[in-house]
UniProtKB/TrEMBL annotation:
Residues 6-242 form the ABC transporter domain. Keywords: ATP-binding, Nucleotide-binding, Transport. One of its GO terms (molecular function) is ATP binding. The keyword tRNA-binding does not apply. This is Intermembrane phospholipid transport system ATP-binding protein. It comes from the Bacteria. InterPro entries: AAA+_ATPase, ABC_transporter-like_ATP-bd, ABC_transporter-like_CS, GGDEF_dom, Nucleotide_cyclase, P-loop_NTPase, Rev_trsase/Diguanyl_cyclase. It comes from Desulfonema limicola.
Length: 403
């Protein structure tokens, strides 16, 4: 793995008697989205504010590319500050300013750019984020999801290396929440910035993060990938995740990823004790991005939600549906071999095709493509290997085309 871009070493912070950070050690890697999770009041925002010097530690070090920030000269600190942008709740859009003026603000504050150059950069960014033609509108005239997009445009306009997000989806409904996550993830891929996201959205945040850090009682008690945290058998971690995650993924109505994995393990146990066969079906919506291009992030998420409803309605009661990622669903088919799974999948494809996906149909000439891969479980083979086998299986590939 690369050298960390930002590293916390033995960082302590108290406010009076209230010891918030106790020996925090944490690495943030370049070009990745790292989520900071943990119970309320554990110090997630305080941690984030240390990164940009809004709060100073009592002891310990914060390093940027291996260099202690506290030892940097004034000019170096200024350069460093210019590499950052934020999307913080308390830095919401200014209602008295137009969308254009809001997005232009960081350029006016940070750079000595002339007005035509600022105009060009703001309009370019608005275009890249599908915000054309709203430059003279005021934030109060925008929907919640649109405001978040404008806030993201403001964070991106300086082309920052690092963006810090403090609970970017608070107060949004499931479709808008997932739309904001999808937007952060796709722009992170497009622009390659390093993102740090403080979030309460579990499991949704797992679908977009490369790494996660969990803070508990002032310490980082976990650092690793979303799969690793969900597989962790540390009681504190499991209690936290199971306590916060909903029974059903709010967008798809399916079980969240962690629950899907636990049901897989139960099926594996049945295979061991009763020699029951079972199969795994992975459905991937291949062209979410195109839906987004045509109709925006919210339409993309609405289409996914609608598709998941149709899948659920077309499965047997014993089948276990869960969400596997931003655009993936996993279905465990108990007592079903690969051939049987192929038939289930084919039947579902036919039914869904006939039902149609109403949200997507309104865009003429558009095809909603979903690929399906099937793998039969093998005793004691871990879930990752079976999912990978299903995803790469070429002999069972279907496309649900709703044109
Ligand atoms: N500037 C400050 N002065 C005094 N206490 C503070 C300050 N900022 C944060 N705190 C305290 O630090 C603790 C951690 O706060 P923080 O906002 O980081 O929690 P959090 O994990 O982000 O919580 P939440 O998930 O509810 O947003 C809280 O007890 C809070 O009251």
């Amino acid at each position: 793995m690369d050298q960390p871009l930002i590293r916390f070493e033995n960082v302590y912070k108290s406010f009076g008697e209230n010891q918030v950070l106790r020996d925090v050690n944490l690495s943030i890697y370049p070009g990745q989205l790292t989520a900071i999770i943990g119970k309320s009041g554990e110090g997630k925002s305080v941690l984030l504010k240390h990164i940009i010097g809004l709060i100073d530690s009592d002891s310990g070090n914060i390093l940027f590319q291996g260099k202690k920030i506290s030892k940097m000269k004034k000019a170096e600190k200024r350069d460093l500050k210019n590499k950052f942008s934020y999307m913080f709740q308390e830095m919401a859009l200014f209602d008295s300013m137009t969308v254009f003026e809001n997005i232009a603000l960081p350029l006016q504050e940070k750079n000595s750019l002339k007005a035509p150059e600022i105009r060009k950069r703001v309009l370019d960014k608005m275009h890249q984020l599908d915000l054309d033609d709203i430059e003279n509108i005021y934030p109060s005239q925008l929907s919640g999801g649109m405001k978040k997009r404008v806030a993201l445009a403001r964070a991106l306009v300086t082309e920052p290396e690092i963006i810090l997000f403090d609970e970017p989806t608070t107060g949004l409904d499931p479709i808008r929440k997932n739309a904001v996550h999808s937007m952060i993830s796709s722009y992170q891929k497009k622009f390659g910035f390093t993102g740090v996201v403080v979030s309460h959205e579990i499991p949704d945040i797992f679908y977009i993060s490369h790494r996660l850090a969990m803070i508990d009682e002032g310490k980082i008690i976990f650092e690793g990938t979303p799969d690793e945290i969900q597989a962790s058998d540390e009681p504190v971690i499991q209690q936290f995740i199971r306590g916060i995650e909903t029974r059903h993924d709010a967008l798809t109505g399916m079980a969240p990823q962690g629950q899907g994995a636990r049901r897989f393990i139960e099926e594996m146990a049945r295979m061991r004790s009763h020699q029951n066969v079972f199969s795994v079906l992975i459905l991937t919506v291949e062209n979410l991005y195109e839906i987004n291009k045509m109709a925006g992030y919210e339409a993309e998420q609405a289409a996914l939600s609608n598709f998941a409803d149709k899948v659920r309605a077309n499965l047997r009661v014993t089948d276990i549906c869960s969400r596997l990622g931003l655009n993936k669903l996993m279905i465990v088919l108990p007592r079903t071999d690969k051939e049987g799974a192929g038939l289930v999948c084919k039947g579902m494809a036919e039914n869904i095709k006939n039902l149609g996906l109403t949200e997507v149909k309104t865009y003429p000439g558009f095809c909603f493509s979903v690929s399906a891969g099937i793998a039969e479980a093998e005793q004691d083979k871990p879930i990752e290997q079976i999912v990978a086998a299903a995803e790469s299986s070429k002999n069972v590939f279907y496309e649900f085309k709703v044109c």
